[in-house]
């Protein structure tokens, strides 16, 4: 018996986390990719809970950077960055429900060198930006084009990074806003959290009827914080199983995998992202694991785990988790 | 000769800051008020540069709080807060231009007590919020309904606050996003900066064709930081003169009045808002006042002024200013 | 009758704010200047409450920068910066008491050009530092030596800045720590707050027996935030009246002048400095002005004022104030 | 062959990381424990490089909390918290050198229940504090006394936490300051970083002649961030091997274990701690691992790891690490 049978998705979702139908969003089916998370965009696909959706995702630059001699400032056209597949309308989803997404697989696609990372001005964790607005001159632009396969990413003669793919940007639409896909927030979005990986289930709050699921921005590897702002971006075939949990209301994304439960906070400064994540985890432990809130606070002090997603986006993203071996299985 | 004749609006805008036409957005003309800043909303009004527009603004709660016994959590329906007049489409405005708004007057309207301020959970500068997410219990809700006239706001038997009205929320639409009117950012929005007052000119960057000007959320008085998150909110008749500066590109709102030039930054943490504002002021001094950038940096160290707008919104807002008596008049 | 007669110093301090004795700390009398705030340093002077003390202060660089061709990185020897007069032991001062310091006058001294400001690496509000640790190259070092008199500071042919002197660094010793004079905190220190000016009274919490008052780092002018990190530093003759308030316990520096009461917070990020200052002001209004705490919170939302001291020191400093015309006179 | 033979300690330190002498700091030998990190305190012990020192550490409350009915606010006497063993003077240590500390073992001592964790007012990551100064009422005080052995900490009937001990507070003395042992900074101190565990080597910068090593505050277990501010505090016998690396100058603590190299940053806001740690790691990779700085920046973007130490102390602590399997062995 797999852990998945005890997952919230398997126990609470309409289709019990099963694959009952199939659909796809190839480049051709997707047509125009999207740069905002919005419920005003006509769905690219409408599905029932329990549908496996196979998406051809673009890289975060929509393939615009093809050579190491390219200049990002010349090739990129802000705000048309981080193209997203979707929106996927989930039948029956209403405000207050939760969409559960099991990540089945992420496979690289497209011609080599298919991996891209860059340094560009006013973007990154250790350079001045529009927010941390300093006077010092930017670093020189630099582009790396990288050979990426399921065996890894060749960085140089010495270093090959393991292929540890995940979905950088995934979420539902806000109720009335249309927010750039560069932003992470309570509905998901550009969280850049490496735990959003094959085998995990992501839970996303429904704000608008139909949920309007978007995803894209898959990374072949990424360190904690996505330091220079650009992971190993690559186009993929990403397959997810989408289900719906009626009446389970969450305030921010949650994640579950074989080992732990996680809540995800996005905010600035970074301590506020950590606070948001930990507070939700405490409230979850009180609601579904039989803890008194203060006891959960004290216990997480001894065993909580923090994963830094990004320290470069308009909000920083932090996941707070606790082992299933400690807290048991959610009610 | 008034200082206005030397203003950037008078010297650079198409209508030279003159009132060449009139229009209005009464409650009836406005119809539905708006809760996002978006260029996708059909204009409530289309004007030529040089038009004086008289707006009937609602208070930030759209009048929903009428008695001191009201509970904000029962009366308010998030995210339908901070209703805005507009959008006002400005003919000829294109990305890279700047809309200049002279604030002619703000006059309170509506039945007494027309002023409202409240304490509500998860909102305010000295309580836990969705960002500064702590475990301590919220303060009790409290509502004050206040008698507001142009003579002031009666706080209690001892204290009457002078009527120092300003526009809490004003801005243009983002290029492709639709952002809640509760947010301040590079396009203006919910800055809650008391200098946005009658007599001042606000300069706003055009992101989308037509500019799409929104405004609302007028305050009868406000301290620096809008500490509990709710100033003395009141409905008004607000009259603004709207003009267009072609080809003058700014990255964030600017403001000019008789005494100073100001740049406005919105970010978190607060130091980043201050950095953004000061960096833009330095770059402005370099571009239009004949300073070398480092000299401007060193001089502002000695004479720059900071005004805190809000410390409660999703981004904090800070204005950085320098006296005209020190830097002279912009080229 | 001057406002001072109603001041807390005049009403609560042992010597009633009167000048009952005189003392001085000339360069010769001071001997070694100090770079930490510590109660372990033997007093340079011991006084009774009610003593007027005239101090010859050094500039923040102890006069080491004499020419515009000097390189700060070659002339300065970290951590031996920001030399302080004192410590001044105040007879009778015990933990829980408050030292009141009326600033009588600040007069520039020393040969011209006696004013100094500099750009140096890893220091300043708009450059990478040891805290905001970025990879971009520092700005070039630059030194300005400036002619400073009580008529002002000559910046260039066009600009003369008014002489608006204040004490950049003033405070008591921590109980058991010895903290660099570059740091501001709950005991005062390097606050760089322009309101600490002639005519004002500063209230400082006593942590260790004798209080151990230090002061130095006078500025001929400074903008809000002390943006590049170095105001117009200059040597002075600074005269202060020092008194003692028994049993009035404060958690952080306070200030009073003709117009307002102020509390001072130093922290990072900047919003925490503002929170600390405003919370203390609210608690003061509750303790000594007859307000209920929530009412004070709501009223300061409408009329509180924020002054940014520094945004460059190890902690940022913010003053929160309220007009005496609004809250009346402290009990 | 153990990894240790390739460690920096084994290759660069005077005693080559070997145990050449033994010394101890039992409670009796230590006598008075210390609450500041200072080079002005007479050494409790003077050693040559290569000495194994066995310390009887107190818990962070010096044993003052003995029952679950104790009230921390009544039992604790701020600032006399977090008692430290030491200072240990290391012969030959001069400013610019580095002290290497191999943590040999940590063993719990004292009568059961020897573990303590508490909730107390104005302290913790999810409550108002002196810095994040809010108006909401504190959580009720709570004390847990816990049975701790090398088999684990019994939290309740359901949960036993593994014994994963580490040194919460360890560092050298600042050059001229005396800083509370509650503070972490560039010299180490109260970092509360779980990687400072048996088997690791910690590198600490020497600021003052003799280095003046302090340590204490051992935790039986701790989650990332030490959320409520108090881990499972317990008294221990902690054994460390202390060595000296001449002429290897570091700006902040570093750590090495079998798997990775780590740099440690302490600052506020949390992103600044992360920036500081990552910048030092990049500079280290450039200095000792043959990387160009920008390449190191881009590579850490793909594989850097962040460990949050504390989010509760006066500065937050973050470790940034990179696997030895990726970067090789330091030159």
UniProtKB/TrEMBL annotation, chains A, B, C, D:
Q: Cite the InterPro entries for this sequence.
A: FmdA_AmdA
N-terminal signal peptide? none
Task: List, alphabetically, the Pfam families matched.
Answer: FmdA_AmdA (PF03069)
Q: What is this protein called?
A: Acetamidase
| UniProt-listed PANTHER family | FORMAMIDASE C869.04-RELATED
Gene3D superfamilies registered for this protein in UniProt: Acetamidase/Formamidase-like domains
Q: Which GO terms describe its molecular function?
A: hydrolase activity, acting on carbon-nitrogen (but not peptide) bonds, in linear amides
